[in-house]
Amino acid sequence: MPNITKSTEKTFYALALVRISLGFIFLWAFLDKLFGLGFATCRDAQTDAINSMCSRAWAEGGSPTTGFLNNAVQGPFSDLYHNLAGVALVDWLFMGGLLVVGVGLLLGIWVRVAAVIGAIMLFLMWTALLWPENNPFMDDHLVYVFALAAVYFGDTNQKWGLRAWWSQTGLVKVLPLLK
To answer: Are 85 and 66 in contact (CB under 8 A)?
Structure first.
């Protein structure tokens, strides 16, 4: 193992905070869309009241992609994204991605896979919102992509995660990609 200075060691703790924070963002999005917890899903636009488990919650038969893809999408790819709204396969891929990325980043397991999947999801969301309102091209989706790249490359010296234990499991020994 290379010589790690105290400054470098602190960097890995900062990366752990970034990893855990992004994991919470993804996992919360999954839970909100699944149960309609009232943040992006099941909040009344006029009264701001939360109606958990409303008809828009995935667990109640709603589509987790319909609201965003029908209402928020703009720019050169809007027709493509509008056609994907409410498609069952897209809903399952989206929710599966949110769950895999959220759990992986929070726990520090399958971090590299989670970082790649999360970066792809965020990049696609960026293309769905072209062009950003406050900048010619940069928005929070791209910043998160770059943060996930840092987490990806810093994973071998991970702090506050289960990587050491996870790396020794039989599943990872059979499928090292999940390390």
So the answer is: yes
CA atoms within 13 A on the CB side of 91: 17
What are residue 126's DSSP bridge partners? Answer: none
Domain range list for the chain: 10-178
DSSP the chain: -----HHHHHHHHHHHHHHHHHHHHHHHHHHHHHHT-SSSSSB-TTT--B-TT-TTSGGGT--TTHHHHHHT--STTHHHHHHHTT-HHHHHHHHHHHHHHHHHHHHTSSHHHHHHHHHHHHHHHHHHTPSPSSSSS--HHHHHHHHHHHHHHTGGG--SSSHHHHHTSHHHHH-GGG-
Angle at 114 between CA 109 and CA 117, to 5 degrees: 165
pLDDT in tens, 48-84: 888 878 888 999 999 999 999 998 899 999 999 999 9
Rounded Cα distance between 52 and 50, Å, is: 6
CA angle 79, 147, 43 (to 5 degrees): 55
How far is it, in rounded angstroms, from Cα 112 to Cα 150? 10
pTM of the prediction? 0.90
∠ Cα 130 131 135 (to 5°): 135
